[in-house]
Amino acid sequence: MKKLTFTLCAAAMLLAKASNAQITDPSPYCPGGFDDDNGNFTVPHSIQEVKISSLDNTSSSTAAPGKHYTYYNNIAAPELAVGYGYDLSVTFDYPSTVHYINAYIDFNHDNDFDDQGEMVLEQTVHGTRTNPAEALVNVPGDAVLGTTRMRVMIFEDDKYMMSGGLHGFACSNDTLDWGETEDYDLNLVIGATSVKGIAAAKTISVYPNPASSTVTVGIDLSNAQVQVTDMRGVVAKVSRNGNQLDVSSLATGMYVLRITKDNQTYTQQLHIER
Fold first, then answer.
1. Strand stretches in 41-200, DSSP E
2. Which of the listed residues 60, 146, 163, 220 has the most CB atoms within 10 Å of its CB?
3. pTM value?
4. In this predicted structure, which of 93-102, 157-166, 177-186, 234-243 has the lowest mean pLDDT?
5. Which domain holds residue 243?
6. In CATH, what number is assigned to the domain containing residue 256?
7. CA distance linking residue 223 with residue 189, whole number of Å
């Protein structure tokens, strides 16, 4: 009986671990795997570290087995606040032969990466590459809130390059030869609630800009100090309602919007046109 109980407990623990482990099924998103030149030979490209907001995942120095695709559903989704900008960093191997380093975020939650602005990082052999590859990811003010997907890809494909392909694409569909793909969950929120999420933010969005009457700020202005100054440093009067500012009383010209919240200060140039 003791042996049976131990066996059942061990099996339950393994099942629990498996249910929370990273998986190789990308659904409902498109496939992101590679076919190793139809199985003829392998080029061991691998993603080694991905960082954005509070996410910092160091994976194996060798590519995942099989199709070289991993969905890290066992990692807590980092918070990205709409209207903020975040540094994205992707470290990889074999920088001299990797043709593309791309990253995508499904900002509107439609289960694809095809919409305008959803490719947030692209480096290719056609331009300058760095290792790590880096980009400032600006989360649109109209991004749909909640958990969504980020896809990071590196790949090499001689046939695709020879055909003149200038851009990578998020869905491999077994047409790309060598590389690795990693998917992550992200949590899009109004105002970062975690300390790491706030500290990671670099910029805020203000739209429309230029403006004439009302501007929307891409963060929650509750408990925030808001100041608008002209180019001489003179403080201008504006009223606010939620995350909107009434700038109808400002004369045509350039201003500086300064917001202090949660011990962080953000500045953005504001252009008023009549």
1. 47-52, 55-58, 69-71, 79-81, 84-92, 100-105, 119-124, 133-138, 146-156, 178-189
2. 220
3. 0.66
4. 157-166
5. 205-272
6. 2.60.40.10
7. 17
pLDDT digits (tens, 9 = 90+) for 168-216: 789 876 567 788 999 999 999 876 555 455 556 666 778 898 899 999 9
Question: Cα–Cα distance between 72 and 185 in angstroms, integer?
Answer: 8
| Residue that is written with structure tokens 């109980």 in the block | 5
The residue among 189, 224, 251 that closes a domain is: 189
pLDDT at 160 over 80: no
Sheet holding 264-272, edge to edge: 235-236, 225-230, 253-261, 264-272
Q: Residue 123: exposed, middle, or buried by beta-carbon count in 10 A (0-12, 13-18, 19+)?
A: buried
The one-letter code for the residue type at 15 is L
Tally Cβ neighbours within 10 Å of residue 213. 13
